[in-house]
């Protein structure tokens, strides 16, 4: 059966496999990971199980969703650092603390350095992996702009990923940081962006278009992903309904008391 890759370009994807190395050890709640499991256009299951035509095989390494634990899970991060998972997309979730202003200990970490026996801080993982990643993605408002942890007075000095790496950062594929904000991130927005990057890695899409805030400006998503645009419009209507909910509750409260005899 012909794949989308052969239909669009007459050739297989440029790469056979792509790894997504996802760190949730920024300051956050893992809510963006949980939100993404609700995506439908496309679903994370469709991407991982190979149901999307034209994509290379995708391997997801996320501590919340992985079946591996402990050193078995951390091995993927060590392999990415050694250049054994090329290419890989590095996803950062949670705001980035400033480890230079602490008095002792650390703000956030994941795993233990086998040479020193000390925790590997989130900042150190970013320093190790971001320069080697094919693309770097900030998932959720905390990772993109610092989120609530970046408010004045927070002792961690939290910031967004672009503030930490620099807004002029480029990956090894010359891709700027890709920001996908939201608290939590809107599931289909994230997966549509990830899908575009995967098609780009496969050689089937041009450079992902980003605005000055590093937000994806992907043309033709409604055409490519079918109901995705409709789902986003439905989300907009749902948000408007939620904003009216307190007024509706007050109305029902007054109605109830008007009918109940004193």
Protein model, in words:
The protein has 262 residues and is of the alpha/beta class. It has a single domain (4-226), classed as Rossmann fold (3-Layer(aba) Sandwich). It has helices spanning 4-9, 31-36, 44-48, 70-81, 122-129, 141-145, 161-165, 187-201, 221-225, 228-259, and strands spanning 17-23, 57-61, 88-93, 109-112, 119-121, 135-139, 178-180. The strands form two sheets. Strands 2-1-3-6-7 form a five-stranded parallel β-sheet, with helices on both faces. The chain is built from ten helices and seven strands. Strand 4 (109-112) and strand 5 form a beta hairpin.
Structural topology:
Layout: H1 4-9, E1 17-23, H2 31-36, H3 44-48, E2 57-61, H4 70-81, E3 88-93, E4 109-112, E5 119-121, H5 122-129, E6 135-139, H6 141-145, H7 161-165, E7 178-180, H8 187-201, H9 221-225, H10 228-259
Parallel strand pairs: 1-2, 1-3, 3-6, 6-7
Antiparallel strand pairs: 4-5
